[in-house]
Amino acid sequence: MLALKNIVKNYYVGGQTVEALKGVSINFRQNEFVSILGPSGCGKTTLLNIIGGLDHYTSGDLVINGKSTKKYKDKDWDVYRNHRIGFIFQSYNLIPHQTVLGNVELALTIAGVSKKERIKKAKQALDRVGLSGQYYKRPNQLSGGQCQRVAIARALVNDPEILLADEPTGALDTVTSVQIMDLIKEISAERLVIMVTHNPELAEQYSTRIIRLLDGEIIKDTAPLTDEEELLDLEKIAEKEKKAQKELYNLAIKGVSVKDKIKPKKEKAKMSMFTAFMLSARNLISKFGRTVMVGIAGSIGIIGIALVLAFSAGIKGYVASMQDDMLSGNPITITEQTYDLDVLTGMMNTRQKQ
Length: 354
Ligand code: ADP
Ligand code: MG
Fold this sequence. Notes:
Helices cover 50% and strands 18% of the residues. The protein is of the alpha/beta class. The protein has a domain at 288-354. Magnesium ion (MG) binds at residues 44-45.
């Protein structure tokens, strides 16, 4: 369902090329728990970001359900990220001024789900990760483990096929780490989970497959897809396509306009202007004191500039009027004709010599 084909990723920094990934090929199963292990700087995060569409590969191909992403545009990547992928990060990445419920809801707001449906789904996701009754708390009122649970709920609320986790327990103590890993393990029963970690014990204990990276290359894969599995995957994709075509054919026979009947479900990946405006307004209101202070500071700045301009204009005017007054007492007369003094002095010089 998801395959990396000879992925190369180069970063260009200050005229130098950093080869973060040097031709990585992996085939994933529809549902397994993959851990990506390796020392710091070996390209784990880069790999995860490319799988999740957060970063784009330099060459190679990412194949999703049998389709190449080489010709993907920004909009296609947005839809892929918002509907197929859930992300969990080491630092939770929650929005501090939003409630727990608001944070989870946001993923649905972007996907364009109605308010009522959003709240229902967000509450279900929070119940699932063991946070029922904590809906209206803010992230700073929660422990690290609880924050990561909120992040997991947010990742799952869109019901993605793939869950990506970058060191999800990196900032947690051992006991909490185990609880979070149990939760992720539970999730992996029904979808593909790809987790980056530098903790080999966690990887061995929980995952079904471990991929080791070193300097941008795979050095070990404990459970690569067998040839039969790959063939089965291809057959499944072909079968799906055949089924879709048959459906189209049947509808055409019945005389139903295909365009009307099977409009592809529109998957939104951007929030509307109104939603964006409301979110910004809520941000401003939630930090009312700060907003007022910024307003006052801005006004002081503008008033200051106005004062400086007024002063400089006033002083300029004063200097001009002073000049007018002073110089009118010493008039300079300019006449139309002039005298050539050089001739006169020349004549005087010759006379003195005589
Ligand atoms: P890991 O997650 O395994 O610690 P990364 O994927 O973050 O490693 O980084 C792999 C290599 O790519 C490192 O050498 C890092 O310096 C480089 N790298 C990662 N991101 C960038 C970037 N945005 N710009 C330039 N170099 C980067
Ligand atoms: Mg990393």
